[in-house]
Amino acid sequence: MSPTLESIACRPLAAPFYIGPLLIDPPILQAPMAGFTNFAFRQIVREYGGAGLLATEMVNARGFVWLDEQEAEHPDRLWGVAEEPRPLAVQIWDNEPATLAKVGARLAGEYAVSVVDINFGCPVRQVTQKAHSGSYLLKHPERMGDIIEQVVAACAPTPVTAKIRLGCTRESINACEIAQVVEGAGAAALTVHGRTAADMFRGSADWDGIAEIKSHLHKIPLIGNGDLDSAQKVVDAFQRYGVDGVMIARASLSKPWLFAQAAAAIRGEPIPPDPTLAEEKQLMLHHYELVCERFGDERGTMLMRKFACCYAQGRHGAREFRKHVGTVVTPQEFNQVVESFFPVG
């Protein structure tokens, strides 16, 4: 039986760890999530605290190079990266070692990011089948090793990490083999999502599968990812599965305060309460202001629809709120829908 939060009060459960020279304290990471983990979201997470390393959305390396060649503004997914507090990771994806190395070098040099992470886990068809990147590369360990070696050389001394899934399908799980390739190629840490690419986000993450990888790594830390939606589950991940760190993903979109709660739990401290609905409403409006400051009122309002739906998730009246907020196009409409339909109980 796993220890409960009450039984471990005042007893630290997990130690900080290093990614290369970078101390990750607390050992809780915010996952890169396409379309969500932009500067505004990262600011919200920072205000609550509890994340030892934050990450951007994943950046298309080939697109970055094209924008560079056109002397255009760099991708929106790098919004805020140059100025915001560290530590900060930027995740990149592609299948060409030279392209990834070129972009990694720019991120490490010009942007001075803390970590360059390579995505080998995205299961989305546009990335896998069309671009032969993300989790598609799990079928080609040698190619992965070549990519990592070149990016590590280009980014030094900035550490390079890799994020993978357990395999492409349940019948072709090869994460232990991949882990050895990742470590041998010079990566500074490995993050594993406990599903296969074919699983997408269905079913439950296989944490036993994640734990099995630990014995195949000898020098670098293992970070587990998947289904961490409560402080108790973070505690379980450290206590039962022996990971060095955890990465919180989708659950944080509706609960950005989860990092702070999890950090308190692993320190053996009292868990901060969830915000009240009134506080959550104000948080959402603050998030909206940050988005509109960057993208303007019209585009900012359109982008905020999906975030607003996340904030209402699991609340009584959430369906009605989603129905109305999904059509707003102006700040006036957004604020009216929030006042009229945001859950209050």
Automatic annotation (TrEMBL):
Binding of FMN, residues: 32-34, 91, 163, 193, 249-250
GO molecular function: flavin adenine dinucleotide binding; tRNA binding; tRNA dihydrouridine synthase activity
Protein EC: 1.3.1.-
Record PROSITE patterns: UPF0034
Catalytic reaction(s) noted: a 5,6-dihydrouridine in tRNA + NAD(+) = a uridine in tRNA + NADH + H(+); a 5,6-dihydrouridine in tRNA + NADP(+) = a uridine in tRNA + NADPH + H(+)
Source species, domain of life: Bacteria
Entry keyword set: Flavoprotein, FMN, NADP, Nucleotide-binding, Oxidoreductase, RNA-binding, tRNA processing, tRNA-binding
Protein name: tRNA-dihydrouridine synthase
Native source species: Bythopirellula goksoeyrii
